[in-house]
Input
Amino acid sequence: MTSTQGTGPASVSMTEEERRLVDLLASMEEDEALALANKMLLQDHANPMRVLDLCRMAMDMVGKRFEEGEYFLPELVLAGEMLDQVSAVAKPLIDQKDEGARRKLGKVLIGTVHGDLHDIGKNIVTFMLDINGFEVKDIGVDVPVRTFIEEINSFQPDVVGLSGFLTLAFDSMKETISAFEKEGVRGQFKVMIGGGQIDETVRAYTGADAFGVNAVEAVNLCRKWLEAA
Output
């Protein structure tokens, strides 16, 4: 549910090595990108959260290139696979630092709404929620309304996250949230939405409680809601 609207790596302060990692990931240079990420994490002992943030910057660029017609579905799939591989190395390093100190802050159910197959942003949010102490259940992409209802009834989440990259997802989000109301479960949890074009107008249209422009904001929303509860 992270935003795919982003600027190039020149817009933020980073080292030459960090800039190279972002460029390699965004340019689909899989072997070189993964080798550099592993070097930074395992040899240089870079902050794993920083490396994941660099991955997010690269994914923002990938999403922008997709919107502009430069990249297509195969590139999105490859980007997601690279992110998964970097995350597999980074996550245990984060867990080692926090081992014994973490507790589950709450339960979050997340999925990409029906009609949309994009999962890069959703996967980043899922990962970030997990390493920040939330119990997360990711139910995948192109999720039918009925599946959301069934999963809510069984998982009993505190927050439901609806992800969508395509503009057609807005109607799917609205339909899904309306179904929560009809089923009488809407008041049991908060709903956040996210994706490539999400803004306050879309939030109001869908009936969600809030929208997140990136994974960090999604985590902060969940924290705020659960602390208030």
